[in-house]
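Page 37, continued from 36.
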């Protein structure tokens, strides 16, 4: 089975902290419902399954993952009812056949077992802001794949998890100098207007640690960034391209 297994790291969070700037809660930090962004998980996942990979879902605590409510709306699918139904059916199948509702706690996956995985993928949604960036087990997993130069994929808010690498080992940020694309500060400011509050910025956080952030109109149109073992995408529009590139990197690794 070696070489045909992929680890998908999910957040345990069903919300993220939002510092309200308007309304009756102005000045307070509230929990804004969130989770995994459906198409950011489903599109690359389908490509991995089509390419014959076996996937293992894992999270820091092994709690049942929740979809981000915004990713379930027809607006997110530009009105494509069939596409949304297909992706929801894929997740339902993963619940029935692949333990999606009970992800492996990352602490239960030894370094030795990590050797059996060909790559790791972290989907987005705002949930990773709450738990993945500061989690030592996430940091241990990412350091393993980095040291072995195994393909590592993350999209949208998923790259926030990269900050966890500072929690273990020598405390360094292992992706310093890497070119990375993620959900941009500009995109987050649009969400802040919608939610009426302030949200931690993935792009700024990674740039402050020394990553070379790739942003701009081309990235927003669904392109991806590849640097060494890392492939990253900015937002849901990049999900197909990210899945294709990840499978390609796995096949040549």
């Amino acid at each position: 089975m070696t070489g045909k297994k992929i680890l998908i790291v999910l957040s345990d969070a069903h919300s993220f902290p939002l510092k309200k700037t308007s309304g009756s809660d102005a000045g307070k930090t509230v929990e804004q419902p969130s989770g995994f962004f459906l198409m950011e998980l489903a599109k690359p996942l389908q490509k991995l399954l089509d390419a014959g990979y076996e996937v293992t879902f894992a999270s820091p605590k092994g709690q049942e993952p929740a979809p981000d409510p915004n990713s379930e709306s027809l607006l997110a699918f530009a009105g494509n009812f069939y596409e949304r139904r297909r992706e929801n059916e894929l997740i339902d199948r993963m619940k029935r056949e692949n333990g999606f509702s009970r992800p492996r706690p990352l602490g239960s996956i030894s370094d030795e077992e990590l050797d059996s995985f060909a790559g790791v993928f972290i989907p987005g949604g705002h949930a990773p802001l709450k738990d993945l960036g500061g989690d030592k087990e996430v940091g241990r997993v990412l350091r393993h794949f980095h040291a072995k130069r195994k393909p590592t994929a993350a999209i949208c808010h998923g790259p926030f998890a990269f900050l966890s690498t500072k929690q273990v080992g020598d405390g360094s940020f292992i992706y310093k100098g890497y070119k990375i694309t993620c959900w941009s500060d500009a995109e987050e400011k649009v969400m802040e207007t919608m939610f009426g509050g302030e949200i931690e910025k993935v792009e700024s956080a990674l740039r402050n640690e020394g990553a070379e952030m790739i942003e701009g109109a081309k990235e927003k149109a669904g392109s991806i960034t590849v640097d060494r073992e890392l492939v990253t995408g900015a937002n849901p529009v990049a999900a197909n391209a990210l899945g294709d590139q990840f499978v390609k990197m796995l096949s040549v690794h």
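The CA atoms of residues 139 and 164 lie 4 Å apart. Flag for discussion at group meeting. The domain at 5-251 is CATH 3.40.50.880 (Rossmann fold).
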